[in-house]
Design a protein that fits this description.
The complex is a heterotrimer of chains A (363), B (182) and C (241). By secondary structure, chain B is α/β, with parallel strands linked by helices. Chain B is built from six helices and seven strands; from the N terminus they run βαβαββααβββαα. The termini of chain B are far apart. In chain C, strands 6, 7, 8, 9, 10 and 11 form a six-stranded mixed sheet that branches. In chain C, strands 3-2-1-4-5 form a five-stranded mixed sheet, sandwiched between helices. Chain C folds into two domains: 139 residues, ATPase, nucleotide binding domain (Nucleotidyltransferase, domain 5, 2-Layer Sandwich); 78 residues, Nucleotidyltransferase, domain 5 (2-Layer Sandwich). Classes of the chains: A alpha/beta (363), B alpha/beta (182), C alpha/beta (241).
Chain lengths: 363, 182, 241
């Protein structure tokens, strides 16, 4: 039986290639449609950050077409892991192998359980096999850490606006791991409202980029879209009514949305001004009510140039510090997961191999 | 109403329909509050109605009646499934964004139909084939021409499973509401 | 384990070889270990969707009981479905990761063939492997036993049990249902083969994977990607207008 001898030698390249980089953490996120991996050294040195959707070719992903790969995490996660290791090696100037990792982090909430479990099983299997700590991460808690990645240590307390996927949340953070949700959308998330309105105008999802472009390139037309819950006290949002208002607006004009950008632009610009005004006003109200001097934004909608511009202006006027990540770190990514994981690891907060996946944020 | 029902439902016995007209959001909410406690243990409720038709209002009220904090009842368009713990567990499903109905085929039933509680499904059209053999209650919300807050409600489900729920939809007297809660 | 597959672990042939078999594609988890060419451990547990929490603990228990480290394995065998989607993904995510991280070859075995190995028919007799995971549909494929191995007679399909039962008629059937009994129609009308102890599924998986792996050309182990099957009825269905 000579096949018994075919076992490959253990990949201990690290030992052969000089000193190990310190505290390399692999971070995995499969909470949503996309599969994201990152390798960080310490808190904020991103050696690699890859997501399936950034690849146009799909030969290496077993025939899975990235743009139609929603939730195909199992099929693509290992080819992506190879990409991440290769990218990290390139950045570090020497090969990086799995054996170089000192921890593995994974988002274990919130999301579709079946999707989370793929990333989590890979993370657990690696943690067990490599005998390194496993760190479970709340994907929503991780979003603001995109700011820590690029801006370094931020002064607590902070108010975060997280406008990501299905959530629009205001979070008050007193310290690492010490945070609470102080405001939330009670129906549709802001990004969802933007996507659905973009769809009414014939733009495919995600609609954020095209609406943002309209908001940047066109002055808002004289349309009076509602500012839902702006007048209401408290810090909750509602965007369902704004979406409906646009639907009725289009219906009153005969149903069909204007095809011509010259006509559609000012409408969408006015619409986004309403979204933006509510987000800015409520976030600043949160800062005022809590006496917090610095705010951050994160999540997919935070990539909007128009929103950032409005936040910058409002924060400057109110004398507040304002932080936002570069667009690539606004949308879902595993680098933010790795950053929060580094803080958790330093604090000795890691998890057992019986870590569970949860569909929701803890209420 | 025939168009609303799929013929595969007939295997579950005679189907009963209820239609009514609501005049305000408050009445939509009241309907949800009546309906929640009247749903059977593993109810599957399909909600049809265009954007802005009040599905969220109705679902929030159903959830509230089931002991879920209504503030956490948000759109699952992006997450596909929201899971709410209450007196009874509720899955809140939204298939609006489903790019490809076949991708639901690659989820286990337990991932999107609550195995131990109630399932409320918005935009269920693409999923109907997957619901073959299931026993569901269907609720349709349609606009009323002369009242922007008004809604026509059509509900249908087989009597064997949903008699109490259909009764709760039909009966808007306060006594029924109180009775269902107690 | 006695039966037509007893030759799978013929003494001597596999000597020096260590392997692990893993099936999480249904509501039960099956694990088995080969150490130095001899089956050394086997587990069969009803953990279903809890696999995520308890699988690694179970595996560690089994490996340390056998005195093996995962890196000492020469082969991984994993069931690749069809079955529970989440279960299949957990098992394969783990198997892929071990294969990738420890450099161990991985052989996939489809779940219906593993089920077929529970049968005890005479050599050459055709029978059907049926697996019901959800709704009224079953995954199914015909098999014959030849040279001590179950060989598929057709591709795996997913069909309505009623229509399939009519088509199969009196041909022998091996059936597994993840929920529901076998006494209701149309299941009750099937010509059911007696199934052997499912507790040995891990060993059967190990055996099938080893045979397939040793019979495959060097460098191209049996494929291990997940098997998802869609029914013809769904593929041709369109939502009501």
């Amino acid at each position: 039986m000579n096949k018994a001898s075919m076992k490959k030698t253990s990949m201990n390249k690290a030992a052969m290639n000089g000193p190990a980089l310190n505290n390399l953490c692999l971070a995995i996120d499969t909470t949503f449609d996309d599969t994201s991996l990152a390798i960080l050294s310490g808190r904020r040195d991103i050696l690699a950050s890859v997501t399936l959707s950034q690849y146009a070719d799909h030969a290496e992903f077993g025939g899975v077409v990235p743009e139609r790969a929603s939730r195909k995490h199992l099929e693509v996660i290992h080819p992506l892991l190879d990409r991440a290791l290769a990218a990290a090696g390139e950045k570090a100037g020497r090969p990086i192998a799995l054996e170089d990792l000192s921890a593995v982090a994974v988002s274990n909430l919130p999301g579709l359980i079946g999707a989370i479990l793929v990333g989590m099983t890979v993370a657990k299997s690696l943690a067990w096999l490599l005998k390194i700590p496993l760190i479970g991460i709340n994907h929503i808690e991780a979003h603001p850490y995109a700011n820590f990645l690029v801006h370094g240590e931020l002064p607590f307390p902070l108010v975060h606006l997280v406008a990501a996927g299905g959530h629009t949340l205001l979070i008050l953070q007193q310290d690492h791991f010490d945070w609470e949700i102080i405001g939330r959308s009670v129906d549709d998330a802001a990004g969802e409202c933007v996507d659905k309105v973009a769809k009414m105008f014939g733009h495919p999802m995600p609609g954020g980029p095209v609406v943002d472009r309209m908001a940047m390139e066109h002055a808002a037309g004289p349309y009076d879209f509602p500012r839902p819950m702006l007048a209401a006290p408290g810090l909750d949002f509602s965007f369902s009514g704004l979406k409906t208002a646009m639907m009725y607006f289009l219906r009153d004009r005969g149903g069909a949305p204007p095809r011509d950008e010259g006509e559609a632009g000012p409408v969408l610009s006015a619409f986004f001004a309403a979204v933006s005004e509510v987000l800015v006003a409520k976030t600043l109200r949160a800062a005022r009510q809590t006496g917090v001097k610095n705010i951050t934004i994160s999540g997919g909608l935070a990539a909007s140039r128009a929103l950032r511009r409005n936040f910058e202006a409002a924060c400057a006027e109110a004398g507040l510090g304002f932080f936002c990540p570069p667009p690539a770190l606004c949308t879902d990514n595993a680098a933010m997961v790795g950053c929060l994981a580094a803080y958790r690891l330093e604090a000795g907060l890691h998890d057992g191999l019986d870590l569970e996946a949860f569909p929701n944020l803890p209420f | 109403m025939q168009a609303l029902r799929e013929q595969e439902q007939e295997q579950n016995g005679p189907v009963e329909e209820v239609t009514l007209r609501l005049e305000s959001l408050a009445e939509t909410r009241a309907l949800g509050l009546r309906l929640g406690p009247a749903l059977p243990e593993n109810a599957i409720v399909l909600l049809e109605g265009e954007m802005g038709s009040g599905k969220t209002t109705l679902i929030k009220a159903i959830c509230e009646a089931l002991g879920v904090n209504p503030a956490v009842v948000i759109s699952p368009t992006y997450t596909l499934v929201n899971v709410y713990p209450g007196i009874r567990s509720v899955f809140h499903v939204d298939l609006f964004r489903l790019e490809d109905p076949e991708s639901l085929l690659e989820l286990d039933r337990d991932d999107w139909i609550n195995p131990r509680g109630i399932s409320l499904v918005e935009w269920p059209r693409e999923a109907r084939r997957l619901l073959a053999g299931e026993d569901w209650l269907e609720i349709r919300l349609d606009p009323v021409p002369d009242n922007s807050q008004g809604r026509f409600i059509k509900a249908a489900g087989c009597r064997r499973t949903y008699a109490k729920a259909l009764e709760a939809i039909r009966d808007r007297t306060p006594e029924h509401h109180g009775g269902a809660k107690a | 384990m006695k039966g037509w597959e007893k030759d799978w672990f013929a003494p001597g042939e596999l000597s020096g070889m260590n392997a692990l078999a893993l099936d999480t594609t249904t509501d039960r988890v099956s694990l088995a270990i080969l150490k130095d060419g001899v089956p050394a451990a086997c587990r069969h547990e009803l953990i279903g969707r809890e696999a995520n929490r308890s699988l690694l603990g179970l595996l560690e228990e089994l490996l340390s009981g056998a005195g093996l480290d995962i890196r000492e394995l020469h082969l991984l065998v994993a069931a690749r479905g069809p079955g529970s989607f989440t279960g299949t993904r957990i098992g394969l995510a783990m198997a892929f990761t071990f294969a990738r991280a420890a450099g161990i070859p991985l052989a996939g075995v489809d779940t219906l063939r593993l089920l077929a190995a529970q049968a005890n028919p005479v050599e050459g007799q055709r029978f059907h492997s049926l697996l019901n995971c959800a709704r009224n549909e079953v995954y199914h494929a015909p098999y014959v036993i030849r040279d001590g191995l179950p060989h598929p007679g057709a591709e795996i399909r997913l069909d309505d049990i009623g229509a399939l039962a009519q088509r199969i008629g009196a041909e022998p059937v091996l059936l597994k249902r993840l929920s529901g009994g076998i006494t209701e129609e149309p299941y009750a009308g099937l010509n059911m083969l007696p199934a052997r102890d499912a507790g040995h599924d891990g060993l059967r998986l190990l055996g099938l994977g080893l045979r397939d792996f040793l019979d495959a050309p060097a460098g191209s182990p049996p494929p291990a990607g997940p098997i998802y099957i869609k029914s013809e009825a769904f593929r041709t269905w369109r939502p009501p207008v």
